Amino acid sequence: MAASLDLTSLMEFAVEQGDPYVALALHPFVDEDSQAGLEGIIFPRKRLKLIFSAAPYTPKTILALLVEEDDEQLRLRLSKNPALAPPLLAKLFEKASPAVIKNLAAHRNTPVDVLQQIDWQGNEIVRTALCGNSNVPLTLLRQLMVGSTTAEKKGLVNNPNADHTLLTELWNGGDKFVQGEVAAHKACPPELREIALQHPDVLVRRKLASNESLASDCLLLLMKDEDALVRSAAIGNAGLEDDHLGNADDPSIRVRRTEAKREDLSAQFIEGLAGDEDHWVRRWVARQSAASEAVMQQLSQDKVMEVRRAVGRNPSCPDYILERLAKDEDSWVRAGVALREDLARHILVGLESDEDIDVKSAVGRNPGTDESVLLAIADHENRDVRRSVIVNPHVPDAALIKLQDDPYPLNRAILSGHPNCLTENLWFLLKDPEPQVRYTAGKALAVRCLGTA
Amino acid sequence: MKILVAIKQVANLDDEFEIREDGKDVDPDFCDFEINEWDDYSLETALQIRENNGDEGEIVVVTVGPDDAEDELRKCLGKGADRAIRVWDDAIEGSDQVAIARILTKVVEQEAPDMVFMGVQAADNAYAQTGMSVAKQLGWPHAAVVSSLDYTPGASTATARRELEGGLEEEITVNCPAVLTIQLGINEPRYASLRGIKQAAAKPLDEISHGDLGLSDDEVGEAGSVSRVRKVFVPEKGQAELIEGTPAEQAARLAEILKELSGA
């Protein structure tokens, strides 16, 4: 079939093929009469109704029809479908069995007014589900708090709607785990933060240190905590400004690793960590874009391969170092260099003839790679290497035509869902043996049809 | 050279499923059907032997199963098998592994292959008996749980490695023809190319009944079986409790539970 882009041709194809997955993909995009025709393809088999009720990819138009069905097996699956929208969950609630109510109580999309109507008294499972639902409003949280078990408190304490009063009650009635979560809550009352700061249990202090709304003075105190886990949590806190970091001389590897991961390190701090005995620290430092040329030069000769690769991935790495790393004895380092989209052409040319599969995959993804090389990689015997070409923004059409026939289903699935995919590819993939590929291709074609209408 | 590969279409259960009204199996509405994983490896073993033999020889796939099982045979044909046989009729319904082996034995006798490959077990029923039962009924040499195979078509023997307990392996030589049950991981099964799948539609697929194999009604189905499913059910789940509190409180609760369970 010609690579046309009109919904009428697509509808004709769907009806002619009778494929429920293509019909499913088109359903939200066509008029009511056409939808009725597609429903005749989608709904005849109970098995497919069960699958589509549970599937997060099922279009809202189909979910809305399934919700209307008087079938408990479907309703159970629908009530657990994470994509089900609030109005459809409210619809399910109108005729909900106890099992469906349990799922509605836990569903993240259940509207607040439905949550408030659910009868949880005397039903431990429903009550526990509500305690763990982050949509539950404060009024209901307060009711659930009365007589709550420790397990339920652990659910309640993670609710973003909890206020100072509720968090104080939870602190007073909870174990150290609940208290730790209270300390980490953004609404944790100041007086509890003070208590948590001096708490004898490391867990509570560590959770407090991870609280991003914590004031700098608290974080500075926690950075001096005797326990490395607490110091590490404070240093990893996004609320901590880099001029509070101090020196890169903490005795704990865990703390120095956390420091090395921060994105706002000064050149001086980076220099302090560059000679660290721990290679994970050096590895993170090597990725720092603020690292000086001298640090990158030093780390590019590190004995640990991952450190050298990290230098090659550093956006500030100068060409002369990349040129050397492109000839590294370890292929993982060379692959890291080959992944760089800003790589100088002469370095990339050297890597294009590298036969290692990691380097080949990286070259296949690189938009600077020569077209003839991409065509050759699209024919590579390794399925994962072939896949790299699909995501290359400069992939030649001829390579995509080759790959639409790839024996590895994942490669065709990636192709069908990628913006590079040609309209011609999509028509071809509508007849793919894999339902997921046909569905994705049908949906992509429908979207393109509407875009050109 | 001819290798016969026996395959099975197995049921893959949904997270939530219901038992059939007769209580003897899962309602098929709640199952996805696919080729038994072990059989993918058996077919790949056969395909590789043929490729190493200059693509000379025939690979025949056989299954005992209803209409839907044809999908799995077509997939095998798409990967490179030459011919397929599906054995089914109403009387075969309810056959246990021994009755299925009886049917497969008749197919082997008709086809007279140089080797028979089967999966170690089926992912759904997990009896792991059909292969050995076929070997017994044929009176052929056999090896189970084969994790490596050295076989040259036309040779009078094959050398196989078998997985044993405790990480041990056993290397054995079997006279040919033989029945081998193939273990997962012996190779990397290929995917069928789209061209192969299209070509598979034109390859021969014979549908035969137990009568075509010379078997009587008494030799298949429940009548020909030595075991019958009485019921399939979900066992009652055990209870779990996270014991919280101080070590002393935890110990007290633990003692309480032990007393409850021992009836003290």
Summarize the model shown.
Helices cover 62% and strands 0% of the residues of chain A. Chain A contains 33 helices and no strands.
Extract low-pLDDT stretches of chain B.
none
Helix percent of chain A reads: 55-70%
What distance lies between the first and last C-alpha atoms of chain B, to the nearest angstrom? 69 Å
Based on Cα principal axes, name the global outline of chain B.
Answer: globular
Distance between the termini of chain A: 20 Å
What amount of the residues of chain A lies in strands?
A: under 5%
- Helix and strand content put the structural class of chain B at alpha/beta
Radius of gyration of chain A: 28 Å
Would you count the extended β strands of chain A for me?
Answer: 0
Mean pLDDT of chain B: 92
Total helical segments of chain B: 6
Q: What is the CA-atom radius of gyration of chain B, in angstroms? A: 23 Å
Q: Provide the residue-averaged pLDDT of chain A.
A: 92
| Side-by-side strand order of the widest sheet of chain B | 9-8-7-10-6-1-4-5-11
Q: Most extensive interface, residues per chain?
A: A-B, 16 and 17 residues
Q: Treating each run of at least 4 consecutive H or I residues as one helix, how many helices of chain A?
A: 33
Number of strand elements of chain B: 11
Overall geometric form of chain A? flat
Strand content of chain B is: 15-25%
